[in-house]
Every structure is written in C-alpha cells, then in structure tokens.
C-alpha cells in the first residue's frame, strides 16, 4: 500500500504542476498543430514497433519511446499540454501494444509528466520563450536539448527508483534489474535524443519533419531489430539448454532403469542357484553344488561387468552407450549363456568353434542373457541358440523359441523402452527394458537386433554383429 500512496502523490503532482507553472512558448506554429504532430508520431512509433515485432502485444517497458514525446512536448509546448500529450500517447500504446497493471501504467505516466516538467524548466531557463531556439549556429539549442535530457532522465530515474524500492521486491524484479542495467540508460538516452531531434527539426518549420520521418523510421527499426535479434539468440540458446537437460534427464532414467534390470536378472539367478547349491550340499551331491557355484560366480562376474560398463557410460558423458569391441569367440559365449539357464530350460547350441565376432564381451553376454531371459518369461525358454558367418561380413546370432509368438499389434513397440504387451504384463514380472537394452547394446557395437516369426510357432530374435578377422 505504501507504493500506492507514493504513486498517488506523484499523480497529484503531475496533474497540478502543469496547471500552475507558467512557462510560455512563443511558438511560430500553432500549439494544437504541434500537439497533433507529437501524437501522430507516437502512433507511428507504436505501429512500426508492432509491425517489426510481428504484432507483439506484451511488454514490460511502458516508459520506453513514450518518453520521447513527453520530452518533445516539454521543449515545444507549455507544460499544460503534457496533460494531453502523455495520456493520449499512453492510451494509444496501451490499446495497441503494452499490457501492464493499470496502477503501474498511471504511475509511469505521472513520472513522465514530472520528468518533462524538469526538462521544461531547463528549456525556459536557457532559451526563455524563444520560438526557434535552434537559430544561428544552433549551439544554444543543442545545449538546451542535452541539459534538458539529463534533467528528464535524472528525475525519471529517481521516480522509478522510488517505486522499485517501496514496492514488494517480487513485484518489481524487472524494474530493479532495469534500473541497474546500463542498457536501460543507453536506450532511454537514445529515446530522448529522438525526441530532442524532433523538437529541433520542428522549430525550424513543420515541413522539415518530412525529412525527419524516414530517418526516424530507420532508427526505430534498427533500435528494435537488435533487441529482437538478441531475444531470438537467447531463445535459441535456452532451447538448446532445455534439449540438453531433457536428453540428460532421459539418459539418467535409462541408466537407472538399466541398472535395476541388468543387475536384477543376474541376482535372481544367483539366488536360485544358491538355493540349489545349498540343497546339493545337504544331499551330498558335490557335482551339482560345484555347477551351481560356477553359475553363481559367472553371474557375479556379469554384475561386476554391468557396473563397470555403467560407470564407463557415466564418465563418457555422451548420453549414449559406448562400446569397446574386441574379437570374441562366439561359441564360448553362447555355451556359457545356455548353461546358465535353469535345468530343463537350457537351449541347444549350434555354432562353429572358431567363429569370431567384434563385440565388447560384457555387452555380448548381456545381449544373450536378456534374450534368453525374455524367452524364459514369455515362451517357456529358448529351444536353440545358433550363430553363423554371413557373406556380408556379419555374424548372425539367432535365439529361437516355440512360444506363442509376439502379437502383431505389439511388434512396432517391441524394442521401445518400458514397452510390455497388454496380455502378458499382468502375469509376467518385468520392466519392459530387456529388449530395449539389447538393441542399444547391439547398436553400440555396430550391430542390430530384429524379430521374426518362427515356423510353425514361436519367435526368432536375430542379432547381427561385425565379424572379426
């Protein structure tokens, strides 16, 4: 409420002072013509601004440009005309472009009237009532414009500063930032120069304004174009930052989901084989116990490899999986993956002994485990795991099952993150990440994963990887 009282006092002073101050001007041009010209130029300014900004209808700069017409009025007309020029120009600007709270709008207009009173006092003190104060070499007139502009800017800044200090900080963030920015004073000085030049030209004869208008239009376009270009650059930079943050956030989600999935599967196997080992020891079956412990060790190694790969991804800070392919014996990895399945669900392995694929070993193991785990969940286990060398220099690994297959309507979503079939999701535990991760790992190693139907029933998941010489 304090700021409302401050603005009320400023408004009362803005209405009273122009009425009581006697600062006449011996104008050679009728005052009503000058007032009409200032109003028309203000209208021109607003309309040009709208065209350049594409019809922009929101801004928080109610004093910008409008200061020029208040300043020109102070130099060309008696103060009482401020009570016409300022409200008229403000009303048009509010109608056509500027949208701010009404009480701030009225306060801003009052501040401009008071700042213009200061400029009018300077004008009266330096050139008295002289009509053409740019006569002779124009030195006195130029000095008048400069000193009056300084007085206008000083009073305007003082009044706006009072409003910024008295009002709540949250409501005046823009104004406080503006008043502490050198760009505001540079811009406002340029606006006052425009008003001063218009006044100087007008004193030499109204028809000289025709020469001023094209210059003004070009200046206005230049002054508006630069902030717009800066805004566009800032907006583009902000969009890039937002995109980077979105990618980083998506990568974080993928990473955490992958961590849960890729460690969860081996831990489940460890738990199952640990129970089997405990039973084998109790039943004095050392061979079964040794096999169970070997599987537990292999899964522990896989968990360690997953953690290592995840830490590698984080340190790379690329937002994508990174791989370090090396020659791998395909048969060894297929046999290890198949023997790691529960008893009764171990698939047949068919692969040439010396076949080499170029792939990061840990990634290859994860790909195989994911595909076999997927077959266990949805198809009762894989029936065959095979690999062959293709003529095009690729190694083709096939994981086959005899399950019900993938529903036609779900195939387009099969490799998407968190995708699960509506029919099986309620009954089968999972996160919908296995096939997504499998594809990402294959692609990171220069390969690909695809699905096809198996005749007469079931599915075939085909992994292609570069062959190593």
UniProtKB/TrEMBL annotation:
Record SUPFAM superfamilies: ATPase domain of HSP90 chaperone/DNA topoisomerase II/histidine kinase (SSF55874), Homodimeric domain of signal transducing histidine kinase (SSF47384)
Organism of provenance: Nocardioides marmorisolisilvae
Cross-referenced InterPro entries: HATPase_C_sf, HATPase_dom, His_kinase_dom, HisK_dim/P_dom, HisK_dim/P_sf, Sig_transdc_His_kin-like_C
GO terms of molecular function: phosphorelay sensor kinase activity
Protein name: histidine kinase
Histidine kinase domain segment(s): 258-469
Subcellular location as annotated: Cell membrane
Keywords assigned: Kinase, Membrane, Phosphoprotein, Transferase, Transmembrane, Transmembrane helix, Two-component regulatory system
Signal peptide, first to last residue: none
Catalytic activities: ATP + protein L-histidine = ADP + protein N-phospho-L-histidine
Catalytic activity, EC: 2.7.13.3
Lineage top rank: taxon: Bacteria
GO cellular component terms, A-Z: plasma membrane
PANTHER family hit by this protein: HYBRID SIGNAL TRANSDUCTION HISTIDINE KINASE C (PTHR43547:SF2), TWO-COMPONENT HISTIDINE KINASE (PTHR43547)
Primary localisation category: membrane
Record's keyword annotation contains Transcription: no
Database matches in CDD domains: HisKA
Pfam families in the cross-refs: HATPase_c (PF02518), HisKA (PF00512)
Transmembrane segments: 32-53, 65-90, 102-122, 142-166, 191-219
């Amino acid at each position: 409420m304090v700021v409302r009282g401050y603005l009320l006092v400023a408004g009362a002073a803005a209405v009273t002072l122009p009425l009581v101050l006697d600062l006449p001007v011996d104008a050679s041009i009728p005052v009503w013509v000058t007032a009409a010209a200032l109003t028309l130029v203000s209208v021109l300014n607003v309309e040009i601004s709208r065209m350049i900004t594409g019809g922009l209808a929101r801004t928080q700069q109610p004093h910008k440009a409008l200061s020029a017409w208040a300043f020109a009025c102070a130099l060309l007309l008696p103060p009482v005309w401020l009570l016409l020029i300022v409200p008229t120009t403000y009303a048009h600007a509010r109608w056509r472009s500027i949208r701010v709270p009404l009480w701030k709008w009225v306060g801003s207009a009052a501040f401009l009237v008071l700042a213009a009173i200061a400029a009018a006092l300077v004008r009266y003190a330096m050139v008295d009532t002289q009509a053409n104060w740019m006569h002779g070499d124009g030195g006195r007139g130029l000095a008048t414009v400069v000193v009056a502009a300084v007085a206008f800017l000083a009073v305007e800044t003082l009044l706006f500063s009072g409003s910024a200090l008295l009002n709540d900080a949250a409501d005046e963030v823009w104004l406080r930032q503006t008043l502490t920015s050198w760009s505001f004073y540079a811009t406002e000085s340029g606006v006052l120069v425009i008003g001063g030049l218009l006044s100087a030209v007008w004193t030499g004869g109204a028809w000289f304004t025709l020469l001023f208008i094209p210059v003004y239009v070009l200046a206005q376009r230049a002054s508006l174009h630069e902030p717009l270009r800066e805004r566009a650059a800032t907006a583009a930079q902000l969009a890039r930052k937002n995109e980077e943050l979105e990618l980083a956030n998506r990568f974080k989600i993928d990473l955490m989901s992958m961590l849960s999935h890729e460690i969860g599967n081996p831990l489940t196997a460890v738990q199952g084989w640990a129970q089997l080992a405990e039973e084998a020891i109790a039943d004095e079956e050392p061979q079964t116990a040794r096999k169970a412990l070997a599987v537990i060790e292999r899964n522990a190694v896989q968990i360690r490899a997953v953690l290592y790969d995840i830490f590698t991804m984080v340190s790379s800070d690329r937002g994508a999986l990174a791989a370090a392919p090396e020659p791998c014996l395909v048969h060894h990895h297929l046999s290890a993956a198949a023997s790691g399945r529960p008893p009764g669900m171990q698939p047949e392995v068919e692969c040439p002994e010396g076949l080499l694929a170029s792939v990061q070993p840990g990634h290859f193991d994860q790909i195989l485990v994911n595909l076999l785990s997927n077959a266990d969940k949805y198809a009762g286990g894989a029936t065959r795991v095979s690999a062959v060398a293709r003529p095009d220099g690729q190694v083709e690994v096939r994981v086959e099952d005899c399950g019900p297959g993938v529903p036609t309507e779900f195939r387009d979503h099969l490799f998407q993150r968190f995708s699960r079939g509506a029919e099986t999701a309620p009954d089968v535990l999972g996160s919908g990440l296995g096939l997504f991760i499998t594809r990402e790992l294959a692609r990171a190693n220069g390969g690909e994963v695809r699905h096809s139907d198996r005749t007469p029933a079931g599915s075939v998941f085909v992994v292609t990887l570069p062959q190593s010489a």
